[in-house]
């Protein structure tokens, strides 16, 4: 399959916690936009990476994530984890982007 044919493509996998999940590519424009959705038994997580060329050697990366819990208990757990760990996730994401920058 070519990259432009992958939008709408879905497959089954196993996430980091060992749960089975369904992954669906919702939007794919090579070197511009990567959007996908991961659905487990408890939640649906939509992630999007959008790249915007600023100059010949600069790219702005926009990352968004939306989590929709399928029940109230999972929603409460997600809210608690968000309060406690969002700063850590943001910090680690910045480190990854810095490593990518150094690599290029």
Automatic annotation (TrEMBL):
It holds the Pfam family DUF3284. It comes from the Bacteria. InterPro entries: DUF3284. This is Uncharacterized protein.
